Amino acid sequence: MSTRTRTGVRVRGRESDGHEEHERLGSAQLGAEPGERASLVQFSSAFCQPCRATRRILAEVAELVDGVAHIEVDAERNLALVRALGIEKTPTVLVLDGAGRIVRRGVGMPRKADVIAALGAAVDAG
Q1: What is the dihedral of CA 110, 111, 112, 113, to 10 degrees?
Q2: Closest to 110 measured CA to CA, from 80, 124, 90, 85
Q3: pTM over 0.85
């Protein structure tokens, strides 16, 4: 079963591994141009302390790899997208492949090594 939301994202039922499937996310949904090879999409809120550290980590990793963009989305100002993607806490990080498909998802402040590993999976997937 799938439903189309106002954001243009089709949300399907959860797979056995607990991840949701979505259509591709692009600049229309994210408010910024995705990376050519992959994107690190961070959902943040204004008073979230771990969001600041997450922003630094993701920006550093994005600078290390050509064709990777770090996109920060204000969760409070993008409630339709937050609901469509099932974002419940900030920071939540989505790793998108070059086609805009979600390949990894994490909640909380990530470790830099984990972001690099997830990014490797996204680049390989795209």
Answers
A1: -120
A2: 90
A3: no
Cβ 81 vs Cβ 27: under 8 Å: no
- Strand, coil or helix: 49: helix
The per-residue pLDDT for 50 is 96
Comparing CA positions, the residue from 125, 84, 99, 90 lying closest to residue 24 is 99
How far is the C-alpha of 52 from the C-alpha of 7, rounded, in Å? 26
Contact yes or no for 86/12 (Cβ under 8 A): no
Cβ(95)–Cβ(39) below 8 Å: yes
The strands making up 38-44's β-sheet, listed across from edge to edge, are 68-74, 38-44, 92-97, 102-107
Q: How many angstroms separate the Cα of 95 from the Cα of each of 3, 47, 62?
A: 22, 23, 11
Could you tell me the mean pLDDT of each successive run of 10 residues in the chain, 126 residues long? Answer: 40 36 82 95 96 97 95 97 96 96 95 93 78
Give the torsion through C-alpha atoms of 77, 8, 122, 94, to 10 deg: 30
Instruction: Please give the torsion angle defined by the CA atoms of residues 17, 18, 23 and 27, in that order, rounded to the nearest 10 degrees.
Output: -120
